[in-house]
Amino acid sequence: MRTAITLCQVPEAAAGPFVFHEPLAQGFTLAKEAGFEDVELFLPGPDHVSVDEIKSLAQTHGLGIAAVGTGAGMVKHGLSLTDPSLEKRVAALDFIEQMIAFGGQLGAPAILGSMQGKYGGNVSKEQALEWLADALRIAGNTAAKYNVPFIYEPLNRYETNLINRLADGADFIEAHSLGNIVLLADLFHMNIEEIDLAASIRAAAKHIGHVHYADSNRRAMGLGHSDPKPIIAALREIGYTGHLSAEILPLPDPLTATQQTIQSIRSVL
Ligand code: LER
Ligand code: MN
Questions:
Q1: DSSP for residue 204
Q2: In the 8-state DSSP scheme, what is residue 120?
Q3: Is 2-268 assigned to CATH 3.40.930.10?
Q4: CB 24 within 8 A of CB 56
Q5: Cis bond leading into 23, ω under 30°?
Q6: Whole-angstrom Cα distance, residue 37 to residue 67?
Q7: Which residue lies with its CA nearest to atom 6 of ligand 1?
Q8: Which atom of ligand 1 is nearest to the CA of 153?
Q9: Is the Cβ atom of 247 under 6 angstroms away from ligand 1?
Q10: Structure pTM?
Q11: Which side of the chain, N or C, has fewer Cβ within a 10 Å radius?
Q12: Which residues of the chain carry a pLDDT beneath 50?
Protein backbone atom coordinates (compact mmCIF):
# COMPACT_ATOMS: atom_id res chain seq x y z
CA MET A 1 0.00 0.00 0.00
CA ARG A 2 1.17 3.52 -0.77
CA THR A 3 0.63 6.74 1.10
CA ALA A 4 -0.95 9.78 -0.54
CA ILE A 5 -2.35 13.14 0.46
CA THR A 6 -4.79 15.39 -1.36
CA LEU A 7 -3.67 18.74 -2.78
CA CYS A 8 -6.64 21.06 -3.29
CA GLN A 9 -6.66 23.96 -5.75
CA VAL A 10 -10.39 24.67 -5.63
CA PRO A 11 -11.28 27.80 -3.61
CA GLU A 12 -14.92 26.64 -3.38
CA ALA A 13 -13.66 23.60 -1.44
CA ALA A 14 -11.59 25.63 1.03
CA ALA A 15 -13.57 24.18 3.96
CA GLY A 16 -13.42 20.65 2.54
CA PRO A 17 -11.44 17.61 3.70
CA PHE A 18 -8.08 18.79 2.39
CA VAL A 19 -4.89 19.59 4.29
CA PHE A 20 -2.97 21.45 1.60
CA HIS A 21 -4.42 24.38 -0.38
CA GLU A 22 -1.11 26.06 -1.23
CA PRO A 23 -0.02 26.65 -4.85
CA LEU A 24 0.90 23.29 -6.39
CA ALA A 25 4.69 23.66 -6.28
CA GLN A 26 4.44 24.37 -2.56
CA GLY A 27 1.85 21.61 -2.08
CA PHE A 28 4.20 19.05 -3.64
CA THR A 29 7.01 20.26 -1.36
CA LEU A 30 4.81 20.05 1.74
CA ALA A 31 3.55 16.56 0.81
CA LYS A 32 7.11 15.34 0.32
CA GLU A 33 8.32 16.93 3.56
CA ALA A 34 5.40 15.35 5.43
CA GLY A 35 6.60 11.94 4.23
CA PHE A 36 3.98 10.98 1.64
CA GLU A 37 4.84 8.92 -1.44
CA ASP A 38 2.15 10.27 -3.78
CA VAL A 39 -0.41 13.07 -4.10
CA GLU A 40 -4.06 13.08 -5.07
CA LEU A 41 -5.07 16.19 -7.02
CA PHE A 42 -8.31 18.11 -6.50
CA LEU A 43 -8.23 20.66 -9.32
CA PRO A 44 -10.74 23.23 -10.64
CA GLY A 45 -10.74 21.46 -14.01
CA PRO A 46 -8.64 19.89 -16.74
CA ASP A 47 -7.14 23.22 -17.89
CA HIS A 48 -5.99 24.59 -14.53
CA VAL A 49 -2.44 23.33 -15.02
CA SER A 50 -0.77 21.41 -17.84
CA VAL A 51 -0.05 17.69 -17.69
CA ASP A 52 3.61 18.50 -18.36
CA GLU A 53 3.79 20.84 -15.39
CA ILE A 54 2.39 18.13 -13.09
CA LYS A 55 4.83 15.59 -14.58
CA SER A 56 7.68 17.94 -13.89
CA LEU A 57 6.52 18.69 -10.30
CA ALA A 58 6.08 14.96 -9.64
CA GLN A 59 9.55 14.19 -10.96
CA THR A 60 11.24 17.07 -9.12
CA HIS A 61 9.72 16.01 -5.81
CA GLY A 62 9.88 12.26 -6.33
CA LEU A 63 6.12 11.93 -5.87
CA GLY A 64 3.60 10.01 -7.98
CA ILE A 65 0.02 10.99 -8.78
CA ALA A 66 -2.38 8.70 -6.94
CA ALA A 67 -5.63 9.95 -8.48
CA VAL A 68 -7.46 13.07 -9.66
CA GLY A 69 -10.80 14.16 -8.23
CA THR A 70 -13.69 15.49 -10.30
CA GLY A 71 -15.62 17.19 -7.48
CA ALA A 72 -14.94 20.67 -8.87
CA GLY A 73 -17.46 19.85 -11.60
CA MET A 74 -20.06 19.97 -8.81
CA VAL A 75 -18.72 22.56 -6.36
CA LYS A 76 -17.56 24.99 -9.04
CA HIS A 77 -19.89 24.36 -11.99
CA GLY A 78 -22.92 22.71 -10.36
CA LEU A 79 -22.71 19.69 -12.69
CA SER A 80 -23.92 16.20 -11.92
CA LEU A 81 -24.48 13.01 -13.89
CA THR A 82 -28.04 12.74 -12.58
CA ASP A 83 -29.20 16.33 -13.16
CA PRO A 84 -32.74 16.56 -14.61
CA SER A 85 -31.32 18.65 -17.47
CA LEU A 86 -29.86 16.66 -20.38
CA GLU A 87 -27.59 19.58 -21.19
CA LYS A 88 -26.13 19.52 -17.67
CA ARG A 89 -25.70 15.75 -17.69
CA VAL A 90 -23.84 15.98 -20.98
CA ALA A 91 -21.63 18.78 -19.61
CA ALA A 92 -21.00 16.72 -16.45
CA LEU A 93 -19.86 13.67 -18.41
CA ASP A 94 -17.74 15.87 -20.67
CA PHE A 95 -16.02 17.39 -17.62
CA ILE A 96 -15.39 13.92 -16.19
CA GLU A 97 -14.03 12.61 -19.47
CA GLN A 98 -11.62 15.53 -19.66
CA MET A 99 -10.46 14.79 -16.10
CA ILE A 100 -10.01 11.12 -17.04
CA ALA A 101 -7.82 12.20 -19.97
CA PHE A 102 -5.87 14.60 -17.74
CA GLY A 103 -5.23 11.98 -15.07
CA GLY A 104 -4.74 9.24 -17.67
CA GLN A 105 -1.77 11.07 -19.17
CA LEU A 106 -0.23 10.97 -15.69
CA GLY A 107 -1.09 7.30 -15.19
CA ALA A 108 -3.63 8.33 -12.56
CA PRO A 109 -7.30 7.32 -12.37
CA ALA A 110 -10.10 9.88 -11.95
CA ILE A 111 -12.64 9.67 -9.12
CA LEU A 112 -16.40 10.15 -9.29
CA GLY A 113 -17.63 11.43 -5.93
CA SER A 114 -20.01 14.35 -5.59
CA MET A 115 -20.62 14.62 -9.36
CA GLN A 116 -22.78 11.49 -9.15
CA GLY A 117 -25.49 13.79 -7.77
CA LYS A 118 -28.78 12.68 -6.19
CA TYR A 119 -32.26 11.68 -7.24
CA GLY A 120 -35.35 13.69 -6.27
CA GLY A 121 -37.98 16.04 -7.68
CA ASN A 122 -38.87 14.86 -11.16
CA VAL A 123 -36.02 12.34 -11.23
CA SER A 124 -36.80 8.91 -9.80
CA LYS A 125 -34.14 6.77 -8.14
CA GLU A 126 -34.42 4.23 -10.97
CA GLN A 127 -33.89 6.95 -13.56
CA ALA A 128 -30.91 8.44 -11.72
CA LEU A 129 -29.27 5.04 -11.32
CA GLU A 130 -29.79 4.31 -15.02
CA TRP A 131 -28.08 7.60 -15.93
CA LEU A 132 -25.30 6.80 -13.49
CA ALA A 133 -24.77 3.34 -15.00
CA ASP A 134 -24.70 4.78 -18.54
CA ALA A 135 -22.12 7.38 -17.50
CA LEU A 136 -19.97 4.84 -15.63
CA ARG A 137 -19.95 2.58 -18.70
CA ILE A 138 -18.63 5.44 -20.84
CA ALA A 139 -16.16 6.61 -18.19
CA GLY A 140 -14.82 3.08 -17.70
CA ASN A 141 -14.23 2.72 -21.44
CA THR A 142 -12.51 6.09 -21.69
CA ALA A 143 -10.27 5.32 -18.70
CA ALA A 144 -9.33 1.98 -20.28
CA LYS A 145 -7.72 3.89 -23.18
CA TYR A 146 -5.21 5.23 -20.63
CA ASN A 147 -4.79 1.86 -18.91
CA VAL A 148 -6.28 3.17 -15.68
CA PRO A 149 -9.55 2.28 -13.98
CA PHE A 150 -12.31 4.79 -13.23
CA ILE A 151 -13.02 5.12 -9.51
CA TYR A 152 -16.58 5.28 -8.20
CA GLU A 153 -17.05 6.49 -4.62
CA PRO A 154 -20.10 5.60 -2.53
CA LEU A 155 -20.80 8.64 -0.32
CA ASN A 156 -22.63 8.96 2.98
CA ARG A 157 -26.37 9.67 3.04
CA TYR A 158 -25.92 13.41 3.58
CA GLU A 159 -24.05 13.72 0.27
CA THR A 160 -25.97 11.35 -2.01
CA ASN A 161 -29.08 9.19 -1.89
CA LEU A 162 -27.90 6.93 -4.72
CA ILE A 163 -25.31 4.49 -3.36
CA ASN A 164 -24.01 4.79 0.21
CA ARG A 165 -22.33 1.46 0.91
CA LEU A 166 -19.59 -0.58 -0.70
CA ALA A 167 -21.85 -3.63 -1.09
CA ASP A 168 -24.41 -1.56 -3.00
CA GLY A 169 -21.61 -0.21 -5.19
CA ALA A 170 -20.38 -3.74 -5.87
CA ASP A 171 -23.91 -4.96 -6.67
CA PHE A 172 -24.42 -1.99 -9.00
CA ILE A 173 -21.19 -2.71 -10.90
CA GLU A 174 -22.12 -6.36 -11.25
CA ALA A 175 -25.80 -5.85 -12.10
CA HIS A 176 -24.85 -3.47 -14.92
CA SER A 177 -21.75 -5.46 -15.98
CA LEU A 178 -19.68 -2.28 -15.71
CA GLY A 179 -16.10 -2.84 -16.83
CA ASN A 180 -13.02 -1.02 -15.56
CA ILE A 181 -14.86 0.56 -12.61
CA VAL A 182 -13.39 0.21 -9.12
CA LEU A 183 -14.80 1.34 -5.79
CA LEU A 184 -13.37 3.93 -3.46
CA ALA A 185 -13.55 2.94 0.18
CA ASP A 186 -13.65 6.31 1.96
CA LEU A 187 -13.35 5.33 5.61
CA PHE A 188 -15.18 8.49 6.72
CA HIS A 189 -18.26 7.73 4.61
CA MET A 190 -18.02 4.08 5.63
CA ASN A 191 -18.03 5.01 9.31
CA ILE A 192 -21.45 6.55 8.78
CA GLU A 193 -22.92 3.84 6.56
CA GLU A 194 -21.31 0.45 7.16
CA ILE A 195 -21.96 -1.96 10.01
CA ASP A 196 -18.40 -3.28 10.12
CA LEU A 197 -15.73 -1.59 8.00
CA ALA A 198 -13.39 -4.56 7.80
CA ALA A 199 -16.21 -6.98 6.90
CA SER A 200 -17.46 -4.58 4.19
CA ILE A 201 -13.97 -4.35 2.73
CA ARG A 202 -13.66 -8.15 2.63
CA ALA A 203 -17.10 -8.51 1.04
CA ALA A 204 -16.33 -5.97 -1.72
CA ALA A 205 -12.75 -7.23 -2.07
CA LYS A 206 -12.42 -7.55 -5.81
CA HIS A 207 -13.95 -4.15 -6.49
CA ILE A 208 -11.88 -1.95 -4.18
CA GLY A 209 -9.38 0.22 -6.03
CA HIS A 210 -8.74 3.23 -3.80
CA VAL A 211 -8.99 4.17 -0.12
CA HIS A 212 -9.54 7.56 1.50
CA TYR A 213 -7.79 7.16 4.82
CA ALA A 214 -9.71 9.22 7.38
CA ASP A 215 -10.94 8.72 10.90
CA SER A 216 -14.62 8.64 11.94
CA ASN A 217 -14.81 12.45 12.22
CA ARG A 218 -12.82 13.00 9.01
CA ARG A 219 -9.75 14.02 10.95
CA ALA A 220 -6.44 12.21 10.51
CA MET A 221 -6.62 8.54 11.49
CA GLY A 222 -6.02 8.41 15.23
CA LEU A 223 -7.85 11.67 15.95
CA GLY A 224 -11.30 10.08 15.93
CA HIS A 225 -12.70 6.79 17.23
CA SER A 226 -11.86 4.37 14.41
CA ASP A 227 -9.52 1.46 14.93
CA PRO A 228 -7.36 1.21 11.80
CA LYS A 229 -5.92 -2.23 12.65
CA PRO A 230 -8.83 -4.45 11.50
CA ILE A 231 -9.31 -2.19 8.46
CA ILE A 232 -5.69 -2.55 7.38
CA ALA A 233 -5.79 -6.28 8.19
CA ALA A 234 -8.80 -6.62 5.85
CA LEU A 235 -7.07 -4.60 3.11
CA ARG A 236 -4.00 -6.82 3.45
CA GLU A 237 -6.12 -9.95 3.37
CA ILE A 238 -7.79 -8.94 0.10
CA GLY A 239 -4.38 -8.17 -1.41
CA TYR A 240 -5.01 -4.44 -1.71
CA THR A 241 -1.89 -2.66 -2.98
CA GLY A 242 -3.42 0.72 -3.82
CA HIS A 243 -3.32 4.01 -1.95
CA LEU A 244 -4.19 5.05 1.56
CA SER A 245 -4.95 8.62 0.57
CA ALA A 246 -5.47 11.18 3.32
CA GLU A 247 -8.58 13.10 2.33
CA ILE A 248 -8.95 14.70 5.75
CA LEU A 249 -9.63 17.97 7.54
CA PRO A 250 -6.55 20.03 8.43
CA LEU A 251 -7.30 19.74 12.14
CA PRO A 252 -6.16 20.68 14.71
CA ASP A 253 -3.63 22.11 12.23
CA PRO A 254 -2.14 20.91 8.93
CA LEU A 255 1.17 19.75 10.41
CA THR A 256 -0.44 17.66 13.16
CA ALA A 257 -2.90 16.18 10.64
CA THR A 258 -0.12 15.05 8.29
CA GLN A 259 2.17 13.78 11.05
CA GLN A 260 -0.68 11.84 12.62
CA THR A 261 -1.60 10.26 9.26
CA ILE A 262 1.95 9.12 8.53
CA GLN A 263 2.38 7.85 12.07
CA SER A 264 -0.88 5.93 11.88
CA ILE A 265 0.04 4.30 8.57
CA ARG A 266 3.55 3.40 9.77
CA SER A 267 2.16 1.86 12.93
CA VAL A 268 -0.30 -0.37 11.09
CA LEU A 269 1.63 -1.34 7.95
C1 LER B 1 -14.79 12.97 -2.18
O2 LER B 1 -13.74 12.07 -2.22
C3 LER B 1 -15.62 12.78 -1.00
O4 LER B 1 -15.33 11.96 -0.17
C5 LER B 1 -16.82 13.59 -0.85
O6 LER B 1 -17.23 13.61 0.49
C7 LER B 1 -16.66 14.98 -1.35
O8 LER B 1 -17.63 15.18 -2.28
MN1 MN C 1 -13.61 10.65 -0.33
A1: T
A2: B
A3: no
A4: no
A5: no
A6: 13
A7: 155
A8: 2
A9: yes
A10: 0.98
A11: C
A12: none
